[in-house]
Structures
1.
Amino acid sequence: MFKKQSIFLSLILSVIAFKGFSQQSVPLSLKMKNVGFTFNLNAQGTPVYQISYGKNEAVKSSVLGFKLDQGISLAENFKLLKADSVTVDETWKPVWGEVAQIRNHYKQLTVHLVQQGQKSILLDIVFRIFEDGLGFRYEFPVQENLKSFVVKEELTAFNMTGDHKTFWIPADFDSNEYKYTSSPLSAIDARKWGLISSGTIEGNIPDQSAVQTPLMMKAANGLYINIHEAALIDYPSMQLHVDKSTFGLSSSLVPDARGNKAYMRTPFHTPWRTVIVSDKATDILSSKMILNLNEPSKIENTSWIKPMKFMGVWWEMQVGRTSWNYTDQMETLHGEGKYVPNGRHAANTENVKHYIDFASKNGIEGLLVEGWNKGWEEWTDDKEEKFDFVTPYPDFDVKAVSDYAKAKNVKMIMHNETGGSATSYERQMDTAFRFMNRYGYGSLKTGYVSGIVPRGEHHDGQWMVNHYIRSIKKAADHHVMIDIHEPTRPTGLHRTYPNFMASEAGRGNEWNFFSDGNPPEHETILPFTRLIGGPMDYTPGIFKLRDYAPGVPERQMHSTLAKQLALYITMYSPLQMAADIPENYSAHMDAFRFIQDVAVDWDDTRIVEAEPGEYITIARKAKGKNEWFLGAITNGEKRETVVKLDFLDKNQIYTATIYADGKDAEWKTNPENYQIKTIKVTAKSVLKLMLAPGGGAAVHFRLLTNPKL
Amino acid sequence: MFKKQSIFLSLILSVIAFKGFSQQSVPLSLKMKNVGFTFNLNAQGTPVYQISYGKNEAVKSSVLGFKLDQGISLAENFKLLKADSVTVDETWKPVWGEVAQIRNHYKQLTVHLVQQGQKSILLDIVFRIFEDGLGFRYEFPVQENLKSFVVKEELTAFNMTGDHKTFWIPADFDSNEYKYTSSPLSAIDARKWGLISSGTIEGNIPDQSAVQTPLMMKAANGLYINIHEAALIDYPSMQLHVDKSTFGLSSSLVPDARGNKAYMRTPFHTPWRTVIVSDKATDILSSKMILNLNEPSKIENTSWIKPMKFMGVWWEMQVGRTSWNYTDQMETLHGEGKYVPNGRHAANTENVKHYIDFASKNGIEGLLVEGWNKGWEEWTDDKEEKFDFVTPYPDFDVKAVSDYAKAKNVKMIMHNETGGSATSYERQMDTAFRFMNRYGYGSLKTGYVSGIVPRGEHHDGQWMVNHYIRSIKKAADHHVMIDIHEPTRPTGLHRTYPNFMASEAGRGNEWNFFSDGNPPEHETILPFTRLIGGPMDYTPGIFKLRDYAPGVPERQMHSTLAKQLALYITMYSPLQMAADIPENYSAHMDAFRFIQDVAVDWDDTRIVEAEPGEYITIARKAKGKNEWFLGAITNGEKRETVVKLDFLDKNQIYTATIYADGKDAEWKTNPENYQIKTIKVTAKSVLKLMLAPGGGAAVHFRLLTNPKL
């Protein structure tokens, strides 16, 4: 049982009089451990900042500012009115997470600027410096000369010191489902990727020299730098334009149908712009800066929010064995009203019960069913009314399924694919959530495949950012946990809305069916990029690694089976899918045991070792238990991982059940080769794990009941 | 009491074998009384049609067709597969209207065409010929080669025979609130008007040679031709591009944010394109063709739908005496949360009770209150969340007002101004209508001032057309009558949704405050243009005709007081406002008597005489009563109108109370000059009415209780 910990909270607030503040003079500097920061106004009165790490520069002097409508350029002629500061050191407990409690320790500097021109404009910039980086945001106070306005451009720059090695995907306004690649900044060229979103490259990736955040870079001097944003609310997502000659990055906001970026009203503040910096890659993965920059939970009663594992009537459609849609004869339906079943519809009552039986028998708590509701025949058409969110196909008995799941102690997970038609979904949302409540669906997966309606809006623009948050809030009102597919990249909002469990917003396991797949290094990059802002529903746990897709024998997972297990640890999510079909698990029940056992909520996490594009090893302690789990993955290279088990309790003996690649395992030719063994270990033990090319290892540490030292 | 009439309905359906149909040959011709029609395929296989009236050509041979996406051009290479025909003669009873029953008598020809190319495409065109014109629409049957598609252009043409005198307003995508002007077709130039909608002329009126429908024309040979559309559903509004050298008109559809016109799925049909034609102007006004082309009521129980007159807490804000908004200090609200009242807020409980008292005492059934709900301070800003549709300002007690109105037998009319943010309204609609039901609001005025959200969409595009219909349906679900301001132009949908009582969609009386006003001829053109598709909430009944607006003494009504009364008859609406404030009515209670007495629902209507831009005289018989009302208006010219009273029952004596312009009345210098007298008349009498420049006359005929002939 989970022993409830007392909440530890300390809060130190102090206004520090910086030297020279009474003279309102710049520059102003702050330091937290290795991270140093300076704010200045340059000769043109442009606000600039700079970040250092130890003796090295991390971000060179970089400008801050905006272009607004009404002819307002907030780019120069600023003066410092005053500056004030505060130091905060508090500890808070997330509702769920990688650790039981999080320290939020920062120094804050607020510079109050005025731009003098025809009309004076007030602009505050708030900087928070942490031991692992800097967060800052713009705040527009209430003022006479600036009320409602349009953001035409945000000018924020992040000037790099050199041609860093960069892990990037192109700046598509509507998709993040690209393979990560690494290259020097100077070699970034978004158009070398085929377009993934629906539309045109010109319309969706107009800037071929721009990339998505979180952007992971490694400098020649060994510094790791990660740029992203926190608390993205009522504002478009930030992309980064790359100047390939100067290595300057600059904010590029996703536009709306009219080419505008954001519609604002003072008082207003932007999301936080974040720069995580360290000389250790592991610090990037353990940083809690983005969570700390988000507001505390707005949901008071969180007792209904519970991490879980789930299966899905999903992969069988994904690989083409069955279908989401009920009929293949839409002309018959449109013409004569005849609903001719295709006989391949997966979400039928009988099949769903089969999944419920398997999940129930094997202790998997949740079951997602896709394709249960009307609309799957023509949902990628360019129309607005795509889905009915409460009307099942004729062969899916909502009541019977719901009752059966309840009797079998399995939690049904609702699926609302919108096909990108957010307007249609918003109109039906009240009805859809009442339906979920009526039939006991406590979780929801939404989806936004295809072009957005309102037409001309983008997945990552201000309108859709607000839409996703509306869906999260509406879900919270109905005590429903939410997992959003195809939204923009997360920015730590799961602190504020802890029912926002996970999202996709990246290239998941499914691409191993769609395409030539995700190369083995993909999963070693995702935690440094996509996962920086929040959990990803990556859908791990595919056991049938080859020959899963009828008619396309060349498609295969770029992974060994053992690596599929390791992903449950290395790809953090409080909702973890066991993505394969029951039959494929039945063939490997010894390995499936790890999926059954692995926790989804944690008291502690140790990033044992990590290098983006190469390897990641993480150990996590299960919530409220003296049990640890470890996952280690590698890229396409074979690797020996040596893990000191010093995270285990001293003076205790543990059993370690090791799920490892077999001797001859290799992702392409022999992925199913794995071995399982159980040994006794202590905190002094050192584990050597051999990871095959594209392989991994998963370990389950349990306290031995009667330890005899 | 209204004696319920038995429903007279006769329906004759017969398939007529046209000569030559078995050979699938064209041309095909039909004739109804004076109206003749021919369909043909020209040498290129392009469908063409032609309309004649008597011996004159009304519409020269004109093409039909489309440009779709997927590279499909439906402009030529068509062949006739078959043609079939039917004759219909039925009579139906509107829930409310200008007459008690309507004859729907037409011959229908359906041509089934196939375009042979790489992929053969099926297209049907349905023509209905009436005694007063032609309606036709395109129907896309279910077919293998055309499923979902985008309409890029509709090619429908209406080729005129000459440089007709035309009554037109410019083809703004977002507004119809222009002064009508008349000019030859060759002189149409939309840009001579200042832009009225928010946006730019380039964005909102890109085609300076285009005009809105209904378009009223008069040919040199005396033919009156009116072009519009009927049953506009799931399609953008049609504008007409004018070729000023050939006098050819062609369909120009309002685009969406992406420049597309409509998103469709077969089976699908367009709205009806309508051409009303006659050698008598009065026939244009009495035509029921557009209503007949709409579907019968989809609302089964219509007992809750009741025409009425209403007053409004409105004009006092409109003229600037009081305000919609509660505070003038938004910076205080945004900054400190302090809600400082401006002391000018009209929709306060006390003031509303004052209106309720007046309405109750004087038998005006309804009361509209604008500005009662939060959001009026910054509602024209370019933001999405503008209004809260259920939260009143602090000085408006919804419950108290609702109870007071009920006790005084006055029906409260809800007001939901959206500021154009349809997305925000759609999200709140469920809540807003539940609120109306809770507080007993049976009617609703909505509004769409300012730019549309979804951004990039237009008031008259497919998305908004669908939105208006969603609002009508939602209102019907909640038994609420609806009056929509700033929608697209109506197309007779009030037959199908009889809770859709009225709309604005034109330049109402209010412009006499906003601007240099509506010239005296404006109201003589509106019935030939804006009102062709449905009732207009024109807001007549202003009694204080000058000096109503503080600080702008030059503003005045372009009307005498007597003309304001006449508008209750000449501007048909089942919702008629008494738009002035109680104090201004109190100064002329003798004239106000007409507004109290005038009916809003009718058993019969006679268009006595009419000429667009010059004069209109209409007599109407009150629903279920032996009472007639007559309205006569003129333009800026003085005029003597001679009316034979042969519409009255023979062998009966009536009293006629005549509200006429005074001897020296003139709209500019002496508008308040009126005279009221009561005389006895019979069906043999002839009334001579002197209409002042900008003047009019209103007459109330009542059966004398004890007639002694």
2.
Amino acid sequence: MKVGIIMGSTSDLPVMQKAIDILEHLDITTEVDIVSAHRTPEKLFDYGQHAHTRGINVIIAGAGGAAHLPGMVASLSPLPVIGVPVKSRNSIDGWDSILSILQMPGGVPVATVALDGAQNAGILAAQILGATNTDIRDRIIAYKEELKQKVIQGAKSLQ
Amino acid sequence: MKVGIIMGSTSDLPVMQKAIDILEHLDITTEVDIVSAHRTPEKLFDYGQHAHTRGINVIIAGAGGAAHLPGMVASLSPLPVIGVPVKSRNSIDGWDSILSILQMPGGVPVATVALDGAQNAGILAAQILGATNTDIRDRIIAYKEELKQKVIQGAKSLQ
Amino acid sequence: MKVGIIMGSTSDLPVMQKAIDILEHLDITTEVDIVSAHRTPEKLFDYGQHAHTRGINVIIAGAGGAAHLPGMVASLSPLPVIGVPVKSRNSIDGWDSILSILQMPGGVPVATVALDGAQNAGILAAQILGATNTDIRDRIIAYKEELKQKVIQGAKSLQ
Amino acid sequence: MKVGIIMGSTSDLPVMQKAIDILEHLDITTEVDIVSAHRTPEKLFDYGQHAHTRGINVIIAGAGGAAHLPGMVASLSPLPVIGVPVKSRNSIDGWDSILSILQMPGGVPVATVALDGAQNAGILAAQILGATNTDIRDRIIAYKEELKQKVIQGAKSLQ
Amino acid sequence: MKVGIIMGSTSDLPVMQKAIDILEHLDITTEVDIVSAHRTPEKLFDYGQHAHTRGINVIIAGAGGAAHLPGMVASLSPLPVIGVPVKSRNSIDGWDSILSILQMPGGVPVATVALDGAQNAGILAAQILGATNTDIRDRIIAYKEELKQKVIQGAKSLQ
Amino acid sequence: MKVGIIMGSTSDLPVMQKAIDILEHLDITTEVDIVSAHRTPEKLFDYGQHAHTRGINVIIAGAGGAAHLPGMVASLSPLPVIGVPVKSRNSIDGWDSILSILQMPGGVPVATVALDGAQNAGILAAQILGATNTDIRDRIIAYKEELKQKVIQGAKSLQ
Amino acid sequence: MKVGIIMGSTSDLPVMQKAIDILEHLDITTEVDIVSAHRTPEKLFDYGQHAHTRGINVIIAGAGGAAHLPGMVASLSPLPVIGVPVKSRNSIDGWDSILSILQMPGGVPVATVALDGAQNAGILAAQILGATNTDIRDRIIAYKEELKQKVIQGAKSLQ
Amino acid sequence: MKVGIIMGSTSDLPVMQKAIDILEHLDITTEVDIVSAHRTPEKLFDYGQHAHTRGINVIIAGAGGAAHLPGMVASLSPLPVIGVPVKSRNSIDGWDSILSILQMPGGVPVATVALDGAQNAGILAAQILGATNTDIRDRIIAYKEELKQKVIQGAKSLQ
């Protein structure tokens, strides 16, 4: 099982790296690529049409501004697509990225996460694989336990 | 495989019905319930902690205003949770519903769809099951073909 | 010379008709089609790649919500693309349509007009053709004179 | 009488400290803890259900982003809950924190204060205790007099 | 014990009536008046300065647009003031009412509830009185139980 | 003739100084004071009720956040009141200041200028005095000529 | 003394009529005209350059959408200009009208009133004339007393 | 063929320079000037009325805040006008610039590009000239190929 991670530009990598890191932490294979909806539309088409035939199970797509990458890949692929709104340099406080990923028309969903929420995109991709796979689901359960322990430690440090 | 669909109030049913309908159309079993984060917190806890042990694979949660249901279920369950922001009666143009579902903190994702986008929530749930199941994925491919034919018919009607 | 007018759905036609009407009023040929970025991506590709080889000079594209049609056509075509943000049924007061058309990344402009501003899209298309064609420019000058006279008549009716 | 102060993460402490400080200044006992709605839901439940039986009279809850802590505690406790929207690192200018705390559904109020307004949350907690206690109310009256004198000094410095 | 309920205009009464009704339901005495910050500033001053000496324990103030009533009363009174942002006729989707009540400066809190959330203002007033009064707190507990039963009935109606 | 300039706090002085400076430049007398609507309500009342009897002709009031000073002075005084929305430290991008000054109810106008637009408040005060005084109006005409010459110089520097 | 009232289109008249009515009520002469910044720019120029030489003392300008009329008249005239943001048919909830009137650059103020606040524009115009004219100021004082009495009657009707 | 580039102030030059640069890169003649709608209205009028008679084919106008320059030039000229919303120093996150350029009334379009999107304004100007000129269109095609190669290089650098 494999998660495909794409982004519109190498400038999105600092944000998107957190998706790669958490999936590695959860021991899930990733494949990372740059695909620009607006500058390499042919590559976008090829990626969207063939990702599922190449063995990818879930796609994570990050983009900023008028972010068309997640929605266009969702249009082309039958796989679940997770969209990460990136607060890019010229973004209007992130609103443009969020709305152009979230507000997809009926028939073509994009599973949108928080602004710059690439870590959550990675966890969601794992949860999707874990929907029908108890081994991966157990890793999610263990990860949630890690988070809980950190908060409990933080609470102790207060006293 | 089964999709659990919950909502904060029966008043959300007209919106959420579209998730039920499309999943039925895609021949996927659903289980529907009312769970209010703010009025029945014990039921919320019970639902979140045991959904995956009861055979549910994906959860769709719809709520409006300060919509805490999707995020709280995501906090309690290892399953992927899809959040539907409902534009409820007193919502501020839907912004409150969207932001309180979308902007989850690191560690606890909610797969957010468009405002009142319950149909897309249903399709996304099917895509999640189809991530590792080619039979369901084929139904998605067929459904996308249906959508395409409708647009092509619409274009013809123009001439 | 010809203006190509496309929209994501027949439900956008009531808004987009104003572009068709004003171009007819200015005696400029139009070609109208339905092209959905999300439901007919292959048609979108074909349209974007070949519009200029088929004799189209300017493209007007209208879409609502997470409106990807104008930007994706602009990605595929060397022609100037005018985007009309349509306040569709589930749009969040039009903000989603506006931002996902306007906030294009560097390299791929979309000439965005006001929300539901299809009439202005038609006039802008005529002005684009008139940029290097004095006959069409004269029609614009005459049209602006018509507008002025209507306001002057309105002012007289006040007295 | 005692004010319980909770927050979702130790990273909220710099903001929330102002509530602790002003309550100390007003000579009111506080109890501070970290309770994360999303990472420690069991602790949240325990806190909400038992705060009033442990001798707490008012709860102040601070959280950022999709801030569910104040609303969920309000769902579980019969005590008045004051919510502090924290402008956390990934918050969209604070709008997410504000709306997910303020826009509670009918039946479950959260007394919301300004963005990062922890000082006012502390004063409001004191006013709540002073609603039926003239000793504490007198401290509020004295505090308001302090504020007035500072402004009058500021005005004098201008001349 | 008594809750003072004021509003800027009789046109706010349809919204504010819900505060009166729920307090009556919880068997708490109310006193209702019209006080306009902008049209009757002297009455505002008198009200704010003497409410606590007249036996009022909590104040609920509702206003729309540039809503100054809650904040000005909070400036004048040592009592806890609950602000209800009213979506008045010329309000900009309620944003003006919310922000001019919520964003009070340090030192002068207003306990803000949801847009048009007068019912929650009433419940919050009762919770404030119940902060130090177990009889009233028990009524809140009973009321929360009522809410829970309604949701459970709603859930049953689904099956 | 005299312009009264007030602000809620000495922290507003860096912004408000521009009103003082431009009025000095236009040779118009000013009187500057700190008046806090929320911390010195009695001073606010006294100021609003007596400014016109003390020889003040126009009032400029600057405030941030839930900015009640301009509107409350306008409620108390028959003089024209110019409001300057100040983008204070905890302001939500200035929206709170703008809306709580601009959206005054029918009967009590505040002449609102741009965010942090104290310079324009000063010019507007001069224009108000110049409405019926040709000497002051001539200074405005001369000032506008200064502005024009600066732009013309800027244009020359480009070549 | 005379107040010039202009608007971009006869469709703005239902909103702007309230300015005319209140000025008539205050016994102040008005002159009403239609001047479109975008359709009759020459008339705009003429109006702005000569209003003060024709005996007009204050200008009220109402416009919607990208509302340039108030600012452009302010650019051309030394008189105080009051801008009324009109929520026109295609306006985005009024935000476009407000921001394009309010956010004027340094040097060229527009005295902006609330959305559709033409009545307040009329009162403000009277206050401007009353800044240096005690007869008109007395009418303002009487008008404010009328407003107060109406609220007091409303309060009585409650009991 | 020539593109006229104007801006409201020399402070807009750092943003607008990107339009000059890309047009130079595409070998298209430009003419740059400072024209302030609010400070040099006569120059604005002269520019708008005569640009097309002086051999200019397309106008690019950049401005910030209440940005009236693009719309006023569009009102005066029959040429296509491209508007660049500049995020100026006192702009409210760019919303004022965007809305006062984009939301033009029927009859007078402005081709609006992204916030600070001067580079795209330059490309759009070239596309407009290329609408009826295959030589310029070929430069656009070559430029789009350059963009594509950069993304492909970026993708390679990832491996």
